[in-house]
Amino acid sequence: MIVGGVAGGMSAATRLRRLDESAEIVVLERSGHVSFANCGLPYYVGGVITDRQALLLQTPASLKARFGLDVRVNSEVVAIDRAGKTVTVANLADGSRYTESYDALILAPGAAPFVPPIPGAERALTLRNIADVDAMAAAVADRPDRAAVIMGGGFIGVELAENLIHKGFEVTIVELAEQLLAPLDVEMAALVEKKLIANGVRVVTGASVTAIAEDSVTLSDGSTLAAGLVIAAIGVRPETTLAEAAGLELGERGGILVDEHQRTSDPAVFAVGDAVVKRDVISGAQALVPLAGPANRHGRLVADVIAGRAASAKPVLGTAVVGVFGLTAAATGWTEKRARAAGRAIRVIHTHPANHAGYYPGAEGLSLKLVVDAETDAVLGAQGAGGSGVDKRIDVIATAIRGGITASELADLELSYAPQFGSAKDPVNMLGYIAENLRDGLTDTIQWHELDAELARGVQLIDVRTPSEYAAGGIPGAINIPVDDLRDRLDEVADDVIVHCQVGLRGYLAARTLAQSGRRVRNLDGGYRTWARL
Amino acid sequence: MIVGGVAGGMSAATRLRRLDESAEIVVLERSGHVSFANCGLPYYVGGVITDRQALLLQTPASLKARFGLDVRVNSEVVAIDRAGKTVTVANLADGSRYTESYDALILAPGAAPFVPPIPGAERALTLRNIADVDAMAAAVADRPDRAAVIMGGGFIGVELAENLIHKGFEVTIVELAEQLLAPLDVEMAALVEKKLIANGVRVVTGASVTAIAEDSVTLSDGSTLAAGLVIAAIGVRPETTLAEAAGLELGERGGILVDEHQRTSDPAVFAVGDAVVKRDVISGAQALVPLAGPANRHGRLVADVIAGRAASAKPVLGTAVVGVFGLTAAATGWTEKRARAAGRAIRVIHTHPANHAGYYPGAEGLSLKLVVDAETDAVLGAQGAGGSGVDKRIDVIATAIRGGITASELADLELSYAPQFGSAKDPVNMLGYIAENLRDGLTDTIQWHELDAELARGVQLIDVRTPSEYAAGGIPGAINIPVDDLRDRLDEVADDVIVHCQVGLRGYLAARTLAQSGRRVRNLDGGYRTWARL
Ligand SMILES: Cc1cc2nc3c(=O)[nH]c(=O)nc-3n(C[C@H](O)[C@H](O)[C@H](O)COP(=O)(O)OP(=O)(O)OC[C@H]3O[C@@H](n4cnc5c(N)ncnc54)[C@H](O)[C@@H]3O)c2cc1C
Ligand SMILES: Cc1cc2nc3c(=O)[nH]c(=O)nc-3n(C[C@H](O)[C@H](O)[C@H](O)COP(=O)(O)OP(=O)(O)OC[C@H]3O[C@@H](n4cnc5c(N)ncnc54)[C@H](O)[C@@H]3O)c2cc1C
Ligand SMILES: CC(C)(COP(=O)(O)OP(=O)(O)OC[C@H]1O[C@@H](n2cnc3c(N)ncnc32)[C@H](O)[C@@H]1OP(=O)(O)O)[C@@H](O)C(=O)NCCC(=O)NCCS
Ligand SMILES: CC(C)(COP(=O)(O)OP(=O)(O)OC[C@H]1O[C@@H](n2cnc3c(N)ncnc32)[C@H](O)[C@@H]1OP(=O)(O)O)[C@@H](O)C(=O)NCCC(=O)NCCS
User: Fold this and answer.
1) Minimal CA–CA distance to A433: which of B205, B203, B278, B293?
2) pLDDT tens across B92-117, in order?
3) Residue A157 shares a structural domain with residue A225
């Protein structure tokens, strides 16, 4: 018996059939559809995906034909009787109720979009299932005024912003935090924000919507915004109503508590997907990671466990990616802010490589960030934003984390290279080189957010770029000594000095020269580009 | 003292400067240029890269200014006196000779294109450096007849074929082996061959050029081909003349022998790059891997060793990639043929996934192949051919191999997923699922090259695709029972049966159903597509 017929639930159902031809498998789904592509919904709103049918990967009929599954849509499970091993099902089509018994019960009810308890909240649209997307598509087609406010600048909010721009809306994202996309650090999220703004999206951070009126919203700063369309995309909360009512244990921040076999506190009840608590791969702490990959994987795993196979869930990294107007932003593992909040000693690296050899036409710029455990050299996390190839680098680093490859060892990865695809030293290798140099004390860096305090202390700042780069814009207070002149102008350099260039490479070269002249020197990590968030 | 001023040599020189401001560093380069982009040369021939200057990443002057390097072009080292620690340098510009002494000597002379000893061989052009590319570009611009024969279907041969097509040539590749691209297995290389043919390249395998006349070539089968332009791209041999003359130890199949510190049999002489013997990561055997990544990495490593830092070279996987008319082909580690030749018990998996979610527009097909050690479940190698995203999957698997992640554990990698970038179960995860099923005996497969023998034995073959797919073309001798009908038509199925579908997925489902009915069943790995090389 499976509650919820999409990513986690249906993966469990199909795998269970493959493992056991004779099992009786019933899937109960509250909405009118199963096996749909949640992740494609924003693109249907924007008309990127035009065929609604393409979102429906399977139907009850096709699942019956191929897998012999008993799939019932419009069927809400409203209660679980754990002692009697039955569930009460409400048939939403005709209002009737009935009970069904189970040997094993799998809960895969997902998560519900959070709607803030503010006046007018009932007018806010959310996006989770096919009914939602139909409603939103209709609202998009109907509204004559073309002004939309999206509450929340997470992945879904940002995807919807792009898609509503495609539809000709004036779009404002209102985000309570000081940045968009919490899985990124602020300076990386700034690149996404810049891209959104360049494409006509208005971004308001550090504010929230406090009231929704008929054609406008009020913000926490008292201002109002026209808003024919209001969307709530401020996050999701695990669907735990049913589990809680049944007395199943929940996690610290909500979510159904499960062990590594996805078993709840009741041995006959399993749970997977957005509804459950996962384990963080770095700290082992409880984590809510509402992503499709783990939902699918753990759904399959539950089937294995029920069929008596040895299988256990791994802690999660939370690798995620989003595309915004051609920019890719992706992340895996921990952010700098998270590592600092946890009190870890870390090393941070920013680079701005090209996605492939610069001499081959069409190279696009990337910004990458690596967060490294200063004690163990372990990779804690990575982030990327930029042209194509960001997802590749983040996937490689996610794999490296899983394989226990240290930051310095990234230098030794053998990644495919031809001029259209990468560089002889791939950007990931380069992160490894830099990590090794930091680990070995060959270079010392300073982060963009640490610079002001040092300058206030009176430390000298040298811009080692060319005079024309210096003239075109730099960091206030910097003097200019191009890297190629440095050996001849050592007498102009103070004993304690910070150097910077455009991306960090020439600064590193300068730092090596200066360090060997006995000076204390730090290189501005990521250079002017990270500092200026270019 | 460094012999050779490109990938390996110049990487050593610049790193050494960063480690040691006071070192005297002399780079001796036979050709007229240093630090050039070998890998870009084919694209300059084809006019994809139009700016010749873009190929020259550094010049002696720029390396002097930035790194204080003494770089001498047109300077061939013609002898090494190891006892006296000197080299004899021939100044190719003025014909003079002089000796220079060294404390440490780094040999990075690269490799030389192999030219077959056949009549007319002097007319065959090769491509290794800037002089070569200038000559080839001139020949391309000059020849009025527009017929080109490329001897050798390796990476460079294939890249040149594409580029000569861009230039309007009629191009024939003549390859001695039965397939192009030795780092791929024959059925994967066939996809590249198909792409070349679709774009007008003629491909002749299993033949060689035996003589070159003024406007034609003769093949081993006696036929002749018009050939205004003849190119030798049949491989490279390590440049060991100098090392051999100096009495340095060489490897079994040529190449300078070095230890994990890139030290030759003479402790004061180091060697890196295409000229040296590397270690294979899987067998530990000697290997010649002429790729830019290892050359750059090991160049840097030699500088570390000379500067007294702890560093040692890792064995190589040989990850490589090539782009051909928009198709990407890549490989890492061992091929099936290599593993079989080495007598390993292996499992082989072929899949044909889409590079991203099918419901999002623009999905492109990939063909992936995984070679797995049947005893340990270790990944021995992987290959891919298809649309964009092949390089990503091969890089992820190369990283997994390095991290000791087993084939089944690929299922648990958390790879970035949004509909434009991948699937909730990424193609790499899917390889892991299939590997796990094979490991656990949930499914048994048969390879495309094993099918004929089984059919000859009279084993039943069932095509489980739809009747219309079956009608459109299938494997001779197969009967058709669509997977969705199978449970109702079990009585038509023999006790020993092979099933197949288009790519392997439905065949797997059918195999699970049939296995549970007590039959011996094998699924044709990779389905009709692998069998038919589609
Ligand atoms: C718009 C959008 C975009 C997304 N984009 C991405 C992305 O790009 N990448 C990514 O990794 N993830 C993405 N996700 C998240 C991903 O879709 C989820 O992580 C995944 O679907 C979770 O699977 P699940 O099985 O836990 O829940 P769901 O897939 O949500 O399925 C749960 C189902 O259970 C049903 N249900 C709930 N309660 C009951 C009940 N009592 N009785 C019967 N049925 C019930 C619900 O109706 C629902 O259909 C996106 C999600 C959304 C909404
Ligand atoms: C056309 C082409 C395309 C390629 N494409 C790719 C690709 O896509 N991906 C990839 O990974 N690799 C590719 N490669 C291979 C890559 O370029 C080499 O692996 C790499 O350059 C090897 O570095 P190296 O330092 O050993 O030798 P090289 O870069 O060849 O440098 C050796 C230098 O030493 C000089 N030299 C030799 N003998 C002497 C002497 N006695 N005295 C002074 N100087 C001497 C030579 O003139 C030469 O310039 C390609 C190579 C070519 C030719
Ligand atoms: C559509 C859905 C029912 C498919 O479930 P599924 O059958 O488990 O998944 P797939 O069709 O991808 O097939 C995977 C199975 O085929 C096998 N397989 C795939 N390709 C194969 C091949 N070429 N050869 C052999 N086997 C293959 C895999 O091993 C796996 O089987 P296993 O789990 O027994 O190991 C389910 O994924 C679903 O409901 N998805 C939609 C919801 C969703 O995921 N939303 C979030 C993202 S938008
Ligand atoms: C051009 C060439 C001289 C460059 O050598 P290089 O200086 O070692 O390489 P790069 O310019 O890529 O810089 C790498 C260095 O900068 C550092 N670096 C790179 N980006 C950085 C950043 N953002 N911040 C700090 N340091 C950075 C790296 O750590 C590395 O230094 P290290 O080796 O001391 O650790 C050499 O690669 C060459 O001759 N290449 C052409 C030939 C070739 O490779 N051909 C085959 C492929 S076509």
Assistant:
1) B293
2) 999 999 999 999 999 999 999 999 99
3) yes
